[in-house]
Amino acid sequence: MNIYLAIVLGSMIAAWAVNTVVAVLNVKALDPRLPQEFAGVYDAQAYAASQRYTRDVARFDVVAETVGLAVGVAFILCGGFPFVDGLARSVGFGPVGTGVVFAAILLLINDVLNLPFSVHRTFVIEERYGFNRTTARTFVLDRLRGWLLTGVIGGPLLAALLWFFNAAGPLAWVWAWLATVTVMAVMHYLAPSLILPLFNTFTPLEPGPLRDAIEDYARRVGFALSGLYVMDGSRRSARSNAFFTGFGKRRRIALFDTLVAAHSPEEIVAVVAHEVGHYRKGHVLRHLALGVARMGAVFLVMSFFLTSPGLHAAFGMDGVSAYAGLVFFLLLFAPVSMVLSVGQNVISRRHEYEADRFAAQTTGRPEALVSALRCLSVDNLSNLTPHPAHVFLNHSHPPVLARIRALRALGAADATARDADLASAVEHRAG
Ligand SMILES: [Zn+2]
User: Fold this and answer.
1) Which of 212, 275, 354, 367 is labelled catalytic?
2) Where do the annotations place Zn(2+) binding (predicted)?
3) pLDDT digits 0-9 by tens, 8-57
């Protein structure tokens, strides 16, 4: 057997096995006794519903992954790639155009196969637990808008990458890397004004106690904001959240309307303070830098494999082409990607604790964040007792109970440290 094929199939099966075992462990870790931190917040019935939800999602994920594995292996072994390549070549474009058509057909196949799962997830599972607000119309429009964005942004980017790898010689990976980073930076810059409004409506937060409280907090820690918006998250789901978009002076906060409706101003300020903490502690920059470095490494390694005849032969291809090599490399690289993601999650979970600590110290009210986290967990039917292996592999955030316990341990710490931190936050603003 071709060594590349053995690695790709072996790692697909290994990833499926690990995910299935961890999903079973996670369901087994569900404990019907309510943790004492949630006494009075969760009633017994809602807590039981949250556990049923965790079970339903786990079962669904295992089925989806199993079908995905079976279809993927069958596609590879039955000559799916040479078949799609034949279709793409029959259009008669040059190597770059053929590559874009090749990728578009693969994405289309993937999207069609995913469609039933996506429909079931939204209209059966999320619906059963009262989360779903997506209408059939929104669902269809979202997919069309997704396709439009992929075509408008992904198409030209892919064409540029293929052009570099076909024509730019040994340093092609550097150009590919620069082009990708540039596109991502531009997208991040344009997201608040051009991309996100395609999917949601953003309205400035009305003047009132909430706006005053957030602006007062931002002023106190010297955090520049260009806008405070409410996003109609309720158009798709009853879940709540908050996020920042844009760079520097164009930075905005978007609060889900569901968050504003269900939380006190004090809790929302605590959530905003947590997000500010991510900026102040350098997490946002570090995260971006790691992502950029990771992308460079991927392109560098990729450049060694793109024209490997062995890699192409593994998937039943006669010839060698940069576009097919790119897809095959991503399949070959999947286990490394998985390890890198787990590493990124380890860092991300540490950052969450730091942002929580920042919020507690700068608002002076750890209990406000505790209460916000509790409410968010109840609203979203979060699993309060995930299995450690599930957390290690998949979670970018620590379990909510661990966060609450860490915040309460801080609450007991002395006020001197809190003042020192606020002073340094203010100093940061002056500097
Ligand atoms: Zn966070």
Assistant:
1) 275
2) 274, 278, 352
3) 999 999 999 999 999 999 999 999 999 999 998 888 888 999 999 999 99
Which of 157, 162, 164 lies closest to 182, judged by CA? 157
Instruction: Indicate whether 315 belongs to any domain.
Output: yes
Q: Strands, E, within 335-398: which ranges?
A: none
Q: What amino acid is encoded at 405 in this protein?
A: R
Q: Measure the CA–CA gap between 87 and 101, rounded to whole angstroms.
A: 9
Residue 274 is labelled as binding a ligand: yes
Statement to judge: residues 110 and 211 lie in one domain: no
Tally the domains of the chain: 2
Q: Is 120 assigned to a binding site? A: no
367 is catalytic: no
Please name the residue that has the structure tokens 């929580």. 356
Q: 250 vs 163, 189, 193, 232, 292, CA distance in Å?
A: 33, 8, 10, 20, 22
185-239: pLDDT as tens digits: 888 888 877 888 888 899 999 999 999 999 999 999 999 888 899 999 888 877 7
Same-domain status, 241 and 298: no
In this prediction the pTM is 0.85
In a domain, 114, yes or no: yes
Known binding residue 428? Answer is no
Q: What is the CATH number of the domain that holds 255?
A: 3.30.2010.10
Give 207 Cα–ligand 1 centroid separation in angstroms.
26
What is the distance in A from the centroid of ligand 1 to the CA of 372?
13
CA of 232 to the centre of ligand 1 (A): 21
Q: Domain range for residue 218?
A: 202-262
**Cα(268) to centroid of ligand 1, in Å?**
13
Per-residue pLDDT tens over the stretch 245-259:
776 667 788 899 988
